[in-house]
Design a protein that fits this description.
four-stranded mixed β-sheet, 1 helix, 11% helix, mainly beta
């Protein structure tokens, strides 16, 4: 009898621990196909519109970490999903919303740039993968990195 209670208790604990929080998950209802089975285009697609697609930090000192929030709006007719965001190098790190952005809703993609080891004019990109048409969107950051006084520019790596 005790064994039966132990098995039932173990099953309950297992069932509860496997329950997922569905409030932050993306539902398949949030995905709208760009083409229907008959080849026609679905008119209710999401659309991502940024206030600006390039941000210039201007002159910064080598070693500085700078950040910028790219504000955007879903101007389409269905939920916008950003599946991923990747910087063009390890010095450029994006943060993006993980939940669907409703039609008409605004959100921000934050980008942090670390200028350590860089000099001169640099341009980096962040590629977003979305459920829009086209599925990728690229935003850019620029900076003119000034080497501190006393540093030997020939010893420093060049900007890539």
């Amino acid at each position: 009898m005790k064994l039966t209670y132990i098995i039932i208790a173990a099953c309950l604990v297992f069932a509860i621990s496997c329950k997922q929080n569905t409030s932050t998950e993306i539902s398949t209802n949030d995905i709208t196909n760009t083409k229907t089975a008959d080849g026609s285009t679905n008119g209710a697609l999401p659309d991502i519109k940024f206030e600006e697609e390039t941000h210039d930090f201007g002159r910064i000192t080598q070693g500085e970490k700078v950040a910028y929030g790219f504000k955007f709006k879903n101007t389409g007719g269905s939920n916008l999903i950003i599946a991923s965001a990747a910087g063009s190098c390890g010095c450029t790190v994006p943060e993006y919303p993980k939940k669907p952005i409703l039609p008409g809703e605004e959100a921000i993609v934050n980008v942090v740039f670390a200028s350590e080891g860089k000099s001169g004019t640099v341009e980096k990109s962040v590629t977003l993968v979305t459920n829009c048409e086209p599925s990728t969107k690229i935003i850019y950051i620029k900076a003119n990195i000034i080497v501190p006084v006393g540093a030997n520019p020939s010893d420093l790596p060049t900007a890539h």
